[in-house]
Amino acid sequence: MDSEGNSGTSTPNSRFTTQAKTADDILSAQTVGLVQLDDFRKRRADAIDAKEREALESGRATPASATDSSDPTFKPSKKKRKTVKKGALSFGNDEDNDSQTPTESLKSRSSTPAATKEDKINEEDDSPPIKKRLAANSNVGFMAKSMSKLALLREAQTREQLRKDFLVMQEAVKQTDFLLPFVFYDGTNIPGGQCRMKKGDMVWLFLDRARKVGAEVGGSDKARREWARVGVDDLMLVKGDIIIPHHYEFYYFMVNKTIGYNGPLFPHSAEPTANTPLDTSASAPAGGLSIPTAPSKTSKAQMQSPAVPDADLEGFGDDSNSTKVVDRRWYERNKHIFPASTWEDFDPTKDYTNHVRKDVNGNAFFFSS
After folding, report:
1. Cα–Cα distance between 183 and 324 in angstroms, integer?
2. At a CB cut-off of 8 Å and minimum separation 6, what does 177 contact?
3. Is pTM, for the whole model, over 0.70?
4. Could you state, in order of their start, the residue ranges of all structural domains in the chain?
5. Most buried one in 235, 316, 358, 362, CB count within 10 A?
């Protein structure tokens, strides 16, 4: 009974008492007997300061782990992560690996030296500033380079030289000869012959030559000789089913590759060919690209004595029925009758490839292919 009663009393045990001394313990150990009040306050302040320094030093120290080595450069070994295969069977190995992972992570954390806030601030101050490089903006599609005055002057000179070269080439192409076979039409096709023209000539010049060629070739044929009495203003050129105005150049249709109902109106080349003269007598115009020039004496001499035979010119052997020379007065009297009812004036803004052909009354034509 005595032993049970003694065990019930509170007995001091060193295992349950703190080992660290407080400021009061230090003060009681240093103070013996009665002391002055000022001396007591001084000793108490010294004890509190000593306790604060001890706590600060103990906070900087890192608790040693059993797995750590004495070498400060020791680095814990990292465990390789095992890749989990999809669709594979599992027998509990993944749970074992997961259970080992937290302990290793705790060890790695305990092994790394803990840095204080002051050390981190000092490291940030000592590190040099990182310079950011300016990268190109990928959102911009094209960036024009800044050009100097000299580069701009050279570019302007190059453009001017290219413009002059093009005008010279264009004028040489306009001086190129080609053949245009034709027929006279007054309800029936009357063979007319062919005219040797230049690509830069206008339509009215072709009509003037066509009526003279018909009179010369016709001979005793009265039907042909009467075409020479018709004035140029009363004649009209019908190419396919399109009436070509007098003021257009043949080169206009060639360079623009104008297409009519039945294909290109004038399928001749707008580039220099083997028949293009190398040295043109007429100089290139400076203001425009398609200025008509009056026929000179040299061109007339070339027409009388051609240097290139007709068989080598463009247009030789073409179908003459597609090019008709028509009296305008006859057309006004018979434009309600087929085929004159299908003819229409040329419109440069019109697309003839997808256009539905209609007569003067608005009725659509149906042509068998």
Report:
1. 5
2. 196, 197, 198, 275, 302, 306, 308, 313
3. no
4. 159-329
5. 235
